[in-house]
Amino acid sequence: MDFGNADSWGAAIYFWIIPVVLGDAIFPPIPSEMVVITGGALSADGRANVFLVGALSAVASWVGDMVVFQLFKRRLSHVLDRWRWGRKVHTGIHAAIAKAGRSSTYGTIIGARFIPGGRLATSAASGIADVSARGFSLCAGLGAVLWASWLVGLGYFTGSATNLPFWASSLIGVVLGLVIGAAVGVIVTRRRGTRSPVDEPAPGE
Q1: Tally of domains within the chain
Q2: Does the residue 149 lie in any domain?
Q3: Residue 78 within a domain
Q4: Among 9, 11, 53, which Cα is nearest to 154's?
Q5: In this structure, is residue 60 part of a structural domain?
Q6: What secondary structure does DSSP assign to 27-59, as a single string?
Q7: Greater confidence, 196 or 13?
Q8: 58, 147 in Cβ contact below 8 A?
Q9: How far is CA 53 from CA 35, 180, 199, in A?
Q10: Is 97 a domain residue?
């Protein structure tokens, strides 16, 4: 695959969206925002279908949130501790919850995904707090649609407004998305926890 070629990306973007956005649900460093924004930029260039990019992004985001929610709701998070990488992820979840706050209100479920790491933190905290599956599912679905629409729209806008290559438009969109999205997310999630509600591992474990 030629990463600088728009035709190559246009043919492959649909296959990148689902695994990347799903993976971001449990491992925030995965660059899901960049992939979704790139999909929007490619749509502006006529290389992808903007509605399909948005739909795939929203569905993958919702499924990822539900997986994390059910993992912690059913107290299965210890499964992660069987592997070294899993323990690192579990430690990262503690840090993400402490940073993004442990509020499990419906507004937070919708808005926290705009903060880096907030999507994982809120899904895990909601499972621990025993939020109703139906309520979480509806809010996660609405949040996923808003998140996907925002990022795809941002990529489409930057792709349409500039005469730069699609990858340059994507980078501009990522920077704008991180700045604006983080600001909006902080406003929505004003309540911040001082301690992770995840059970802390016993000393020596």
Answers
A1: 1
A2: yes
A3: yes
A4: 53
A5: yes
A6: -TTS-HHHHHHHHHHHHHTTSS-HHHHHHHHHH
A7: 13
A8: yes
A9: 10, 21, 38
A10: yes
